[in-house]
Amino acid sequence: MSAEGLEYWLCDVFTEKPLAGNQLAVFADAGNLSTEQMQAIAREMNLSETTFLVRREEHEEREHGVTVRIFTVQEELPFAGHPTLGTASLIREYLSARVETVNGQETVTLNLKAGKVPVRFESGSRFGEMTQPNPSFGALHEAAAVAKALGLRPEDLAASMPIQTASTGLPFVIVPLASVEVLSRLRVPMSLADEYVRDKDAKFFYCIARDESDANGSEWRARMQFYNGEDPATGSAAGCAISYLVRHGFVASETRVHLRQGVEMGRPSDLFLRAHREGEKVSEIRVGGSTVPVAKGRFFLA
């Protein structure tokens, strides 16, 4: 590595203003870093996720997308939402040669371990919308067992809504709660939660609640607590949530949902969700929001 160090940006994702939303570190060029070094750097950054661009020839990036690897403090992920949106936003802002115009929209395509994910941007705006992989739906979960794993009572769950695993690249147990009040007092006992999902078809819990002040059913709230604390915005889980809501008829096909997350931890995030349903098939999972760059620096390994 050169004495100049590794260039990286810090940005806030799913927000229009700095110091809100979900933080992300984006390394512009992973160079010759090993997987172990990327993981160690992600631990050093100590954010929910850190991404690394693995650069290739320009024609390869245009054909296949920009290769990006995503790390939490503990592991590499095949897909994650706010790193996808935030990284694409940074590429658009600082690496414009990798931006294509498709149907009048600026598009950045990322080549992730879960596959290609296009992110489209509104002209003159920082608002971007990613199209996630089509969803798969897994196990239905028993309410009393899930309530115990989350430190809740069975009556704290939304009785008329099933609890189900959904995935658009990363599987979550979608848990509808009875109210925003229940959501606001959520304190997940991680030992019980980890024990529950250990032998299940999901990696994390994602808890959602309808905003009772909205008569149209298009305003929702969410929280995601996991081994790194609490996530201010979880774009991958939001894609699973809108897939679930449309699949079960709680939200109509193509209805835009405004999902707010991070409120309780002082980092409010705004996620905008849509999905298409035709018969029993749910597709075109879109998760959107804005990204704000907040800092730029260099990281030294020697």
Describe the model.
The chain is an alpha+beta fold. The protein has helices at 35-45, 58-64, 81-94, 143-149, 180-184, 190-197, 235-247; strands spanning 6-13, 22-27, 50-54, 66-71, 76-77, 100-102, 105-112, 115-121, 127-132, 136-140, 164-167, 171-176, 204-210, 219-226, 229-231, 257-261, 269-278, 281-299. It is built from seven helices and 18 strands. It has an eight-stranded mixed β-barrel with strand order 1-2-3-4-7-8-9-18, surrounded by four helices. 45% of the residues are buried. The model has no long low-confidence stretch (mean pLDDT 95).
Short description:
With about 300 residues, the chain is α+β, with helices and mostly antiparallel strands. It is about 20% helix and about 40% strand. The chain has 2 domains: about 5-130 and about 290-300, Diaminopimelate Epimerase, Chain A, domain 1 (Roll); about 135-290, Diaminopimelate Epimerase, Chain A, domain 1.
Which short descriptors sum up this protein?
Diaminopimelate Epimerase, Chain A, domain 1, 302 residues, single chain, 8-stranded mixed beta barrel, 7 helices, alpha+beta, globular, 22% helix
Annotation field: number of helices = 7
Overall pLDDT score:
95
According to CATH, the fold-level topology of the largest domain is Diaminopimelate Epimerase, Chain A, domain 1
Secondary structure class reads: alpha+beta
In the CATH hierarchy, the architecture of the largest domain is Roll
Main beta-sheet strand count, sense and barrel state: 8 strands, mixed, barrel
The domain count comes to: 2
Number of strands: 18
Please identify which CATH superfamily of the largest domain we are dealing with: Diaminopimelate Epimerase, Chain A, domain 1
| Head-to-tail CA distance between termini | 8 Å
Strand residues, percent = 35-45%
Work out the radius of gyration. 19 Å
Indicate the CATH class of the largest domain.
Answer: Alpha Beta
Helix content: 10-25%
What low-confidence regions span 5 or more consecutive residues with pLDDT below 50? none
